[in-house]
Structure formats: C-alpha cells, structure tokens
Write a structure and sequence with these properties.
Layout (H helix, E strand, L loop, with lengths): L21 E5 L21 H11 L3 E5 L9 H10 L3 E5 L7 H10 L1 E7 L11 H8 L5 E5 L5 H9 L5 E3 L14 H10 L4 E5 L2 H4 L8 H13 L4 E3 L16 H11 L3 H16 L4
Helix pairs in contact: 5-6
Length: 286
C-alpha cells in the first residue's frame, strides 16, 4: 500500500522526463475553499507546495490544473493555484454558456485554456451542454476536455463529431469496465482521433483497471493501441492527487509515469506525448 505523502518524495522514476514535460491533468485543493459534500476529495493535502514536491520527483516542468468537480462552478481555488504556479501552468475551468465575457477574459489572462465537461452523475457541466460551451469559449482560444464512460461512446458520437476545434477525451476513454482493443467502442474512439481535432489523455489507468497494479494490463493494452495508432494526438497526465483512490488503491506516481515508457517505446513518440502535443494545445512557449 502506497502512503500518499511518502509518494511525493519517493524514489526517482526509472525513466527521466524529457525537458518541457507537461502533466496535462492534475488538481489542487487549498484550505479555505468550500467543497461539494457529494464529490470526492483527496486523502491528503494537495496544495501547490505538495504538487511541486511531486514535480521534483517526476521531473515535470509544466502542469495543467483542472478544476476539481468538488469545487463545482467556483473556480476560485483554480485561480489561486494558477497565480501561484505562474507561467509554468495552464488551467481548465468550469464555465457555462452563460458565463460573462469579462470572466472568460479574466480566466484567460490567468492561464485558463479550456473548459471541463464531466458526464457523470455529479458532473457540474455534462455532455448535453458541451457544444454550447464550446461555442462560448471559441473566441478565447480554449478547448474542451470531456470525461464520460467510454462504454457509452457510441451514443455521444454525434455531439463529439460536431465539435468545431480541438478537444480532449480524458483517461484513455475511461471505459468502465475496460474493453479489448478490437471492441467496436474503442474503435469508435480511434475514429474520433482520425478526424484530426481529438486528443486523448493517457492517464488514470488505476481508476478503471480490473487487473490492477503494477501494470494495469487491461487499460495498458488500450494505451499501447492508442500510441500505435496516433501518438501525435495523445497527452499524458498524472491525475494527482487521485481523488477517487482509497488508501488501499492509491497508486505510486513514479510507477504511473514509468508505465508510459512501457506503452510508448519510441523516444520520438514520448517527446510528442509529454512535450510537443500539450505545448501546442495549451499554449506553452517553446
């Protein structure tokens, strides 16, 4: 069992991160910001200071702070985190089609580059509002990130195919439970990638895997297939601080990072996934 706090200062990864590596999906929780009692929160402190310890362990230079669903529509904690992290961070906020233009401009100035869509029972903004949100944020150069059960992907295809601009599907499609790489629903995910505006995150394998650590082989098979299909459309993320994990299932972040090197054996593919793709999507400088 991994101690969440010892995990921050654990041994270095077996594989060094290339310069400019971006963690494209992590969360910050700060004291003084109220959370929704129906949403999970981390088992341990998850401030900017704690995350910087993890960055040092993994060799990560840049991060994308994603608004936790526990904060719902209040982006205040996200804004504070971006102010503290500075230009080495970008943000993903929760907004609606009714969010005032002044708020969108202020968030953009702080480093926000995307809007979160979470299509689970307690998600603040679901897929039904995705296209309206995408229309609202387009002028600010934002993209949408969307999380849903990949087993339902076929019923969401019409909406996803209608997105004008880049978007991201979280957590290797988040198939609950994992499917095989030749499953029609995984092939539907590949078809979205082939349209040229869909990115997919290689992340959070521990959330859905039935085979479990150390290799999370069932989700790993999907991750390997994604790398083989389109490394130019993939991102990597830690999903720290792992709010869905229990004390018994808490993952080792060093091992999660090293798994990418199992899934992507070519250095040029890892360079795309860890550095080039997220830098272009999120507007990090060269």
């Amino acid at each position: 069992m991994v101690d969440p706090m010892d995990n921050l200062d654990g041994p270095p990864t077996a594989n060094p991160a290339p310069p400019g590596t971006v963690d494209t999906h992590m969360h910050i929780f700060m004291d003084g910001y109220a959370t929704d009692p129906a949403s999970p929160v981390p088992l341990h402190p998850a401030s900017v200071a704690e995350y910087r310890r993890l960055q040092t362990r993994l060799g990560i230079e840049r991060a994308v702070v994603v608004q936790s669903n526990a904060y719902r529509f209040d982006n205040s904690c996200l804004e504070a985190a971006l102010a503290e992290l500075g230009d080495a961070a970008r943000g993903i906020a929760v907004v609606t089609p009714e969010t005032p233009e002044a708020d969108l401009r202020r968030l953009t100035d702080l480093g926000v580059r995307g809007a979160r869509i979470m299509d689970f029972g307690n998600g603040a903004v679901g897929v039904g509002r995705l296209l309206a949100v995408a229309d609202r944020i387009r002028a600010f150069g934002w993209h949408v990130i969307v999380q849903f059960n990949g087993r339902d992907i076929e019923e969401k295809l019409e909406i996803l195919q209608a997105i004008d601009g880049d978007y991201v599907i979280d957590h290797a499609g988040k198939f609950i439970d994992p499917v095989a790489p030749d499953d029609a629903r995984f092939e539907a995910l590949l078809s979205l990638i082939d349209r040229g505006n869909c990115f997919v995150k290689l992340s959070a394998c521990y959330e859905t895997s039935l085979t479990g650590p150390p290799g999370y082989d069932d989700v790993g098979a999907l991750s390997r297939a994604l790398v083989g299909h389109a490394p130019e459309r993939l991102l990597w993320a830690s999903n720290w601080p792992h709010v869905s994990a229990t004390a018994e299932t808490y993952p080792d972040d060093g091992r999660l990072f090293d798994l990418l090197f199992d899934w992507a054996s070519k250095a040029e593919d890892r360079q795309r996934i860890l550095v080039d793709n997220p830098a272009r999507l999120c507007g990090f400088p060269d």
